[in-house]
Structures are given as C-alpha cells and as structure tokens.
Amino acid sequence: MSCTLELPLVLLVLLLTGLAALPAGAEAPRTLFITNDTCPDYTWGLTEEQTRQAFADLVRAHLDEMTRTDSLPPDQRSRYNMAVTEEALCFLERHPNRRAELIRRLREGCLLLSPFLCNTLWGFQSVEGALRALYPARRLEAECGVPIDVAEHIEEPSLPWGMASVLAGSGIRWVSVPFLDYDCAFGALKVPPIFDLRGPDGRRVRVVMDAWASEKANYTQGAAYLKASKEGRQEWLRHYADSGYPYPAILASGTHGDISPTSGGQARGFTEAIQAASGDGPRLVNATLRQFADAVDGSGVPVPLISGCFGHSWELWPVSLAKVVAELRSAERRYLAAESLAALASWSDPGLPRRTEARRRRAERCWAMLGDHAWNGTDDANRKVNADLRRGWARGLEASARELEQEAWRALGLSASANRVTLFNPLSAARAELLSLPVPPEVTGATAGLRAAVPSQVVQEEGRRLLYCVPPRVPGFGTGELRLSASAPKAQPSPRLVATSTSLEGPYYSLRVDPATGAVASLVHKATGRELVDPAGERGLFEPVYHDGKDRGLINVRTEVVAVGPVLARLRVTGSLAGGTHSTTFTLYTALDRLDVDVRVSKPAGKEQQRLCHLLPLSLGPEAVLRVETPGAVVRPKLQPEGDLLPGADTRRMAVQGFVDVSQPEGLGVTVAPLDAFALRMDLGTLAFEALGNDQNYREVTQDQGGDTEFRFRYSLRAHAGPYRQSEAVSWSRAVASPLLAVPGALPGSRAAMPSRRAAPGRRGAAAPLPGIDVPASRAVATCLKPSDASGEGTILRLWETAGHTGPVTLTVRGWRRAVLTDLLERDKTPLPINAGKLRVPLAAWGMTCVRLK
Asked: Which of 40, 141, 151, 181 is deepest in the core (most CB within 10 A)?
C-alpha cells in the first residue's frame, strides 16, 4: 500500500511546500501549547522503589501546583500530562487519601491520563500484550468518567502500522510521538507534523510527530522553548510560519525529561517559566495534550492522511536478554491458553472469574511491563536492576499461567486417572497437532477413545521418556481425550521416514546436512520438487554464525540420528561455537507438513560486542516478497511503493510476532515461525534471526546476557505450493507455537457437545457442559478468549480478520444466548443477535473486533 495524502492536490502542495495562503506580510495567529510531562522509562537510572516514589512525587507536585495556581488566568494554571498510567497508580499507592483530588483534576481537564501502562516498545509487544497495557487506564476511565482518548508515547522513534488499528479500535483518537533520534533512521523522516495514520483495516488515529521539534529538542521541547533566548523563541515561530504550517496550534511537548528523584521539585519552576514567557510572542498555554488536540480538531484545517509503517527502531534491544525474551514469549502463549480454559471453566464454576481476578491482574501487569523501554540501563548496576525485573516479570507471568490453568481444571471437575489424558485446544481453529507426554516405562502407545489406536512413538529426551503422537483433531476451544496403553506394539520405523547421519526424508521434505558446517545444505519440497535452499549462497539454512568483529561458524561438527519411528525422525548436529557448544535438532514428521528446528546454545557470558544469528538463505528468486507479522499487521518491510515502510522507517531490522513468509508472487513460498527468537535482520546479506547478541544499542544494553549461559531457540518451517495466503500463515504459525494443553485425568461425563439446555452451574463433579465456539479459520483467528474485565460481564472474544475481506463472519456459538459488539477494550457498542446458535460478527479486512458473549 502506498503512502497517500488524501487532500486536494493544490492544498497539499501548499501545506508541504509552505507557499501558504496568507496575504503578504501576514501571519496566522498562533497559540503555543506547552505540555508538562516526564519521560517515564521504568527504572531507567533508578531502582524500582526510587522510580515509583519519583512518579508519585511528580504527580503530587503538579497537583499542589494546580491548587496554588487556581486563581491565575486559565492559560497559566498548572497542568500535567501523565504519560503512563503507572504515574497515577504510583501516586495512588503512596497517597490513597488524595484519590478524590486526582479524579477531580482529571475531570476538570487539568490532568491528562495517557493510556499506556508504561513506556512501551510497541513493536516488540503482541497485539494482546499491547492491549493489556491499556487495561489499567481503562479501569481508571470507568471510575473517573474521563475518556482515555488522547495518548502520549514518549521518546521511541517508531510507529508500527498495526498500532494505528489497535489504538483506534481501543477508542484512542490522538497519539503524540515526540521521539529521540537515536539508534534509528528517523533522520530521513518526511511526514507532515500532524497527520492521520490509517491502519491496515482502515481505522485512523491522528498523530502529532513533529520531526523538526523532535530533532531540535527531543522530548523536552517545552523546556527548550522556555530556556531559549528571545531570538531562539522567534526561531521556533519562524519555522512554523516559513514551513507553511497551517494550524493555529503549535505543540511544544515535554518539560521534565527523564524521570528522576528531583523531578517533582521542578514543577513550580516550569509553571513560573510559562507565566514569565506569556505575552512575549504568541499566546502561551500551560496545557494538556488534549487541549492541543482539540484546538487542531476545531481549527477546520484538513489533516493529511498517511497509510504505512514507521518501522521498528528500538524493538530489537531486548535481544540482549534473549533468554528472558524466550521466557516471555512462552509465558504469554501459556497464559492465553490458561485464560481460554478459564473462560470456558466459568460455565462449570461461575465464581471462577472473581476468585482469579487478582491473580489475572498481577499477570496482566507482568505482561505489560515486559514491554517497557528499559531493557537497558545507565550503568552495569542499573542494567542488572532492569534485567532482574524483566526476568521476574516473565517468570511471574508463567507462574500465573500455571496457577490459572490448574484452577480452571479444578473448576471443570478434572479427576485423577492412571491412563486417561484430557486435551484442550486453546486456539480457535480445530487441529490435529503434535503432542508429547511424559510416560512411565509400561506405556507404549495411546488410543483415541477405547479402540482407535493413535500412531505413537516413545523417545528418550533429556532424561525423560516422552510419548509422541498426533491425536485426532480437537475442535477450537474444545477438549479431547487420549488413553495411554501398555499393550500397544512397540514403535517401528515408518517406511515414510528415513534417516541417516546427514539426511532426513519424509513424505513432505527431503533434508541434507553439510557435515562440515552443520547447516542444511538442501531442503527439497516434495510436492513441487523445488529446492528451498539457495544453491548459490555461501551459507546453509539455519546455519549458526557468531560475529564478534569476524564471522565464525560451527567447528568440530558431529551429526547423528537420535530418533526414527512411525511419528517422527530426528537428526542432531552438534559442534563448538563462541567458546561454547551449539546443538541443532532437525525433525520431520509422518503426518505433519513441517520441519522443526530446536537449537540449544551453551555459551559463556562475555561483554565483547557480538551476535549469534541463524541464517535463512532461501531459494525463491529476486521477485519473492518478504512479509513479517508485526502487532496487528503483516508488513512488507521495504520502503513504499515496493513495501509498506514509510520514509524514515528502519529497513535493517524488525521484531517478529508469529511468522516470516517469503513467497513468489504467484507460487512457491516458505513460512517460518520463530517460537523463541524475534529479531529479524535484513542487513546481513541474507535473512537472519539474531537469536542473541548485544550489538543493538551496545553502549546501553546488558552486554553479558544478564549472566545467562544456556539458551534455546525453536523454529518451524513449512513450504506452500500456492501463493501466500495470510489466513493460512497466521493459523499455522499459531498452531505450532501454541501446543494442545494436556493433563493427566478425566473430565466428568461427556463434553463433546453443548446441549440445548445448560446444566445447573456450580455443581462440582457434575457433567456441566462446555460451550462451543467455531471460528472459520479461512476468515479469522481469535487472539484471545478470556473472562470479561471487572467492568463488564460474560466472556470476551477478540478476532483478527486474516483473509483481507470486509464483511460479516458467521460463528457457531453453542451455549451463549446474547452477544454484544464492543471495542477492543470491552466498551459495549451494539447488541448482536444469536439465531439458532449462529452469530454474525462484522469484520473489516485485516481488522480486529471484539465481542462480549453472555
């Protein structure tokens, strides 16, 4: 999609060239809005206690200033913009007796609450992670009655395309992005200072991203203006006059700069500086961001419309704590699965949502805080503080997921059983998916039901005896059951799977490893007979390359077959790399069309500048199109018009959510799902995942991986003979990343279908039915199924349209009687009828929508 500025051509030229429509020598009257705020990176340069106290002190100081200046002219009265919700929460934590005062000032418009919980790396977060960061502000909004429709995102030089849809779908109409031009490509940014950004689904958010002001004063533009001489202030005004800036309102964003223990002591100084500067030039307002937004909206001046992505500039910094990122990604998937199970278990136990509310709130905070900027620090001690916080948040999210899952199984009445295993599919699409179960020595196989044998294979793995199988399809958000068997015949090698010390062959792929490098030298897609590895490339597929000023490959390479049977065949490659060991296990399957890659790295900690990459030299030709799933949008990461990136976007790197796809325009393609790695590099001569490293902002990030020395990175690859289809790529990548939940035991009675009348709730051990939801995978996926937030009732289903078609999608909903269309933050909008178990939900192409089921 190209960058579009939807204004009449003549007006567009006037706006962008400055040949403005004013009489000679005349100048439109201007109002300069100075917004007090801080750059609220959590624990940047501080401990957690210092940060929380500094936030509380800063809000308190501005509230005191509001009281002191209530009698001044309105433009000079103190106002403050809480750039993150944590500022309000820290204030209320330390000053609970002033809650009513905070709410009153919000209602009066003296305070602005930006809806981000923390200063997020918004391209690093998933859609659900980004939304959960908005929920605490949404709860304050419900209490205060003040909309959170104007947002401020300080410092970060990026704006992922899908965030326009996420923000607009959450009721946010304006966002301010006063960026810091550091470690980014924003020096080439060429956009008007104010524009409407249209997301991939057509939703729009109005953006103030003033490149001139940001390059001049970063995110302390207000302070810079106030400190400037009279001539310096005139320079600001001349810039807007000479550039043809058409709006009567100018924004000077930011005063306090980075949060510090002394920030609160600055509040009165900025109030007095604004008073002193008033009357010296334009009208000056001590302002909230909403005042500026309303002035622009009320001016009647058309705003340009832009469509495209501003890229990911800082989102790769977390690669410096790669093990924590892997823990986060795994915990997020597990928590979403546990939420889905809990939502359905609430039918058996209606008290479950209330009992688990505090735990779910704690998990939500851990999840959201993992998106905060400060995966780096001001010195080694501060970097350790931030690494430890993130490690604790990731493990806290994982622990919450386990606890919620266990509580949900109890609510469902799961009972112990020596030979029965209950399965749950936490995704919206039915699937037959790989399952691995730890089993005792007597178990040799499994059956579906009482008789139907499931092809099974026992593999010794890391000291455990695991049973691998692919059970029959489990419906979306549905359950299934396996019975473990001691009488099944011993697994025999499958005639469809062949393994040697350097090769694997199955029904879908033929793989050959180079014994010198340990990389995949050949991967043939059997359906088309096509070679997927670039034969002209110098490197192999998934080849590990360590760089510390010089590229270094695997040495002392050893290859061996570690498993072959009716379900899977495995080949392991081990060697020495970067002073440690690197082991890659390649797995092909009889019944699954994919190649799984499991990498284990043991590496001593070191502070030299370094990176470890896994390469993707695919043989699809120069016409092949690269697509990357980012939060809320699949992006072609090239500059427009060839791709979706806008001028100033970073073309070197991108944070990946579910998948990367490389496809020929009308045919063969390859989809890769990274389960643990996330950092895609496009500047190393071939596509590569930077699995771990410290070369992204080396000066500030943790340089020794936080002391971690053991790492795991998993990838799945699948080729497709036909053209790229986003619905297939999204569904497949989610399936490989989110395994079926499997727990020893049995559910009471049969839960295969929802009867027409619901059993009485709350009867433990009774065969209380489970509801059902069928989402057509060819049109959409559910990003979550969760208990409603405390402000509402029922169950929340969020959907992402993945086929590129606008129009309703028909869901089958068994058991629910009512439905309400909501926005993405669960504000009710329109009732939706359910007729004979069918629910039609309106979806925009590539859009997200949310439904409350009751």
From this structure: 40
pLDDT tens for each residue of 45-71: 999 999 999 999 999 999 999 999 999
Q: What is the DSSP letter of 329?
A: H
Q: Which of 425, 485, 430 is nearest to 452 (CA)?
A: 485
C-beta separation of 338 from 404 below 8 A: yes
Helix (H, G, I), strand (E, B) or coil at 109: coil
Three-state SS for 414-432 is: CECCCCEEEEECCCCCCEC
Mean pLDDT of 591-611: 96
161 and 621 Cβ atoms separated by less than 8 Å: no
What's the token pair of residue 794?
Answer: 């029922």
Neighbour-count burial for 453-491, b at 16+ CB within 10 Å, e otherwise: ebbbbbbeeeeeebbbbbbeebbbbbbbbbbbbeebeeb
Buried b (16+ CB within 10 A) or exposed e, 17-46: eeebeeeeeeeeebbbbbbbbbbbbbbbbb
CA gap 398, 324 in Å, rounded:
12
Tell me the pLDDT band of 20, cut-offs 50, 70 and 90: very low
Of 741, 732, 733, nearest to 480 (Cα)? 741
DSSP states along 338-369: HHHHHHHHTTT-TTHHHHTHHHHHHHHHHHHH
Are 474 and 518 in contact, with CB atoms under 8 Å apart? Answer: no
Residue listed under structure tokens 């310096």: 232
Quick check: helix, strand or coil at residue 192? coil
Of 255, 191, 181, 241, the closest CA to residue 215 belongs to: 181
Please report, for residues 424, 435, 662, 741, 750, the alpha-carbon distance to residue 481 in angstroms, rounded to integers and kept in the order given: 9, 12, 37, 11, 10
The tokens describing 527, both together, are 């359906």
Query: What angle is formed at CA 557 by the lines to CA 551 and CA 563, rounded to 5 degrees?
Result: 130
On average, the pLDDT of the chain sits at 92
The CA dihedral of 464, 468, 471, 477, to the nearest 10 degrees, is 50
Q: Is 249 helix (H, G, I), strand (E, B) or coil?
A: strand
CB 53 within 8 Å of CB 94: yes
Q: Worst-scoring range by mean pLDDT, 1-5, 240-244, 463-467, 492-496?
A: 1-5
Give per-residue pLDDT as tens, 419-467.
999 999 999 999 999 999 999 999 989 998 767 889 999 999 988 999 9
- With 0-12 CB in 10 A as exposed, 13-18 as middle and 19+ as buried, what is 139? middle
SS3 807: strand
- Cβ–Cβ < 8 Å for 364, 400: no
> CA–CA separation, 734 vs 450, rounded Å?
30
Please count the residues of the chain: 854
SS3 812: strand
pTM (predicted TM-score): 0.93
**Are the CB atoms for 303 and 198 separated by under 8 Å?**
no
CA 191 from centre of chain? 25
- Can you say how many angstroms the Cα of residue 426 is from the centroid of all Cα atoms in its chain? 18
